[in-house]
UniProtKB/TrEMBL annotation:
Pfam families: Hydrolase_4 (PF12146). This is Alpha/beta hydrolase. It comes from the Bacteria. Keywords: Hydrolase, Membrane, Transmembrane, Transmembrane helix. The keyword Transmembrane applies. The lineage of its organism: Bacteria, Bacillati, Bacillota, Bacilli, Bacillales. Residues 85-205 form the Serine aminopeptidase S33 domain. Coiled coil: none annotated. GO terms for molecular function: hydrolase activity. The chain crosses the membrane at residues 12-39.
Length: 311
């Protein structure tokens, strides 16, 4: 009996520390993997600039804009119409993309607007394309980038300003319009309504990692890595400061990246002044590719109303 007791004690002395070590190593592995994933999400490889407005028969000038943060230089293009501009429309690209936004694509759509008398501004958000910065913040600091471009436009041109954004850029356009009341209206294609809740719901889909513990760890680590508050990127909390200025929401019911219910939530906050166009069969930000002519007509009708000073 005494021998058995001693053996159990000896086994306990080995297994208890070993179990603690295994738990600690597992926790460290989870944290390490979460740091890696958080780093990857905020440090996407830069998509190359693959075309210019000249490829679509448009004259343009290169421009450098200063982000509202006062320290980030943003590269872009200004495409003027042939005559006097009705309005300047600033395009805002999506996560991991640049001013060309090939999956929409931006340049053919810009040509439609320029041919109708609109000035178009295309630029790269921070850490994208040719702009400065080394970290994508999914709308939090990109809002300052867009506000900086708006300031440049107000300084150089007299005509009214509208914003057009897709995905992250759509959410960012709403955030910027809420802060700058010189923006006359917004066209938002496939935005999320709240970044933190969207990431919480979709992180397992993006990372293929179990929701527990990885989603919670990653959402704790990303703000620390990027020095940001995810709650800032919340269009649902900004739309009240955009209204009664109009927003045209465009979203496909078959969007597999951001559910169309996100745009519905935003639209329903002010259905009296907001507009909603739901398409079908198009994946994320692919409505223009599938419904090109109708997309351009709806966009131009919205902008024409803004340019005339109506909503």
């Amino acid at each position: 009996m005494e021998l058995d007791r001693k053996r159990r004690l000896a086994v306990g002395r080995i297994w208890i520390p070993l179990s603690i070590a295994i738990v600690l190593l597992g926790a460290l592995a989870c944290i390490g993997l979460s740091v890696y994933v958080g780093w990857q999400l905020t440090h996407k490889p830069r998509a190359p600039i693959t075309a210019t407005p000249q490829d679509y028969g448009m004259a343009y000038e290169r421009a450098t804009f200063a982000s509202k943060d006062g320290k980030t230089a943003l590269k872009g293009w200004i495409i003027p119409p042939k005559g006097a501009a009705k309005m300047t429309v600033i395009f805002a690209h999506g996560y991991g993309n640049n001013r060309v936004q090939e999956n929409v694509p931006f340049l053919p759509l810009a040509k439609r607007l320029v041919d109708e008398g609109y000035r178009v501004v295309l630029f790269d958000f921070r850490a994208s394309g040719e702009s400065e910065g080394d970290m994508i913040t999914i709308g939090v600091k990109e809002k300052d980038d867009l506000l900086g471009v708006i300031d440049y436009v107000k300084e150089h041109y007299r005509e009214p300003i509208a914003l057009y954004g897709v995905s992250m850029g759509a959410a960012t356009a709403i955030l910027a319009a809420a802060e700058d009341h010189d923006v006359r209206g917004v066209i938002a294609d496939s935005p999320f309504s709240d970044l933190e809740s969207y990431l919480r719901a979709n992180m397992p889909v993006w990372t293929h990692l179990p929701n527990v513990p990885f989603t919670y760890l990653i959402l704790a680590i990303i703000p620390a890595l990027a020095d940001l508050d995810l709650g800032v990127s919340s269009p649902i909390h900004a739309v009240d400061r955009v209204a009664p200025r109009p927003i045209l929401f465009i979203h496909s019911k078959d969007d597999h990246s951001i559910p169309y219910s996100e745009s519905v939530k935003l639209y329903e906050t002010h259905p009296d002044v907001f507009q909603l166009w739901l398409t079908e069969r198009a994946d994320h930000v692919k409505s223009f590719s599938l419904y090109g002519e109708e997309y351009a007509k709806r966009m131009l009708a919205f902008l024409d109303a803004l340019a005339k000073g109506s909503s």
